[in-house]
Amino acid sequence: MDSNLETFCREILETPNTEGCLLANGQGLCIEAKGKVASPESSGILVALSEQAAKLEPNSNPPTVVLDYKDLTCFIQKHDSHTTAVYRRKK
Length: 91
Description:
GO molecular function: guanyl-nucleotide exchange factor activity
Strand order of the largest sheet: 2-1-5-4-3
Family: Belongs to the LAMTOR5 family.
CATH topology: Beta-Lactamase
GO biological process, one term: cellular response to amino acid stimulus
Largest sheet: 5 strands, antiparallel
Subcellular location: Cytoplasm; Lysosome
Number of strands: 5
InterPro entries: LAMTOR5
Structural class: alpha+beta
């Protein structure tokens, strides 16, 4: 993996209450999945959600999709050619 992306993923995981992160490329393929995340096979769906959100909110750079689970919250954002999903534990 690109060392910049590896550093990025490590920094995300060091953030308090963060349980996991998933990085996907523009084609929806999982680049990295660490910690407590949805399965890496869901990376295509996460990318599709971020692309649809960009169509719904074209003036938001970039829009954030929030998925609320019982004990986790997932934040999805597209950055350049990569999509990031960060899973955070609820307080």
